[in-house]
Amino acid sequence: MTLRGVRKTYRLGRHLVAALQGVDLDVRAGEMLALAGPSGSGKSTLLNLCGLIDLPDAGSILLRGEPVQRLGERRRTLLRRDVIGFVFQNFNLVPVMTAAENVEYPLFIAGLPEGERRRRVAQALERVGLAAHAGHRPDELSGGQRQRVAIARALVKRPALVIADEPTASLDSHTADAVLELMRERCRDEGVTFVFATHDERLSSRCDRVVPLLDGRVQTAPAAAAAAAATVWSAA
Asked: Residue limits of the ABC transporter domain (predicted)?
């Protein structure tokens, strides 16, 4: 994924807020990239653009060589469904579904056979340490457990790109380490790309790159600028 000169502005009452101001960013295949910065720096807005949830007001975003702004809503929806996994800060779990059903839902939408769905769900919950809680609804789980369900749901469909907003915020150190190791395995073994927004040094220290944001701009040191040149995220 390649972003050039990306700008995004929101209206709050009578005021316009420039969330992103001319962001250039290259996201490499198979890397773990952290967006760091204080609240209001533009991290979540940039995540939404990378995840095709929103579109920029100006500038360009290329995904697999396609200009995102030229894609119709149906095409963007299919890409979000088939290519991108999401871990939201508020989990976005369906309250009436069990943990297993929440994890299974994207596979059901994708039309996978029931046997394959059940196999993948069991494996995903086992990997995040929740096999024993498969039949529990979100209100029967702790915040950390709900976060792990959200992570399992994002990974179960084997996406090429995972967008995650503070994925370790609700996790204790032991669980966070286990989840980060799982993500690292997906990077290494399957070439999955992860883009995080985080304040958590446990996460940012384990990433391949940290991109600092401030007031909607990338704060690029000279060495980081050289390392970030000439790369494109392009999943097979």
From this structure: 1-232
Residue pair 42/23 in contact by the 8 Å Cβ criterion: yes
CATH pick for 29-55+73-211 out of 3.30.720.200, 3.40.220.10, 3.90.1150.10, 3.40.50.300: 3.40.50.300
- Give domain limits for the chain: 29-55+73-211
pLDDT in tens, 160-212: 999 999 998 888 888 888 889 989 998 998 899 999 999 889 899 999 999 99
pLDDT of residue 228: 41
SS3 5: strand
Encode burial over 149-173: b for 16+ CB neighbours within 10 A, e otherwise.
bbbbbbbbbebbbbbbbbbbebbee
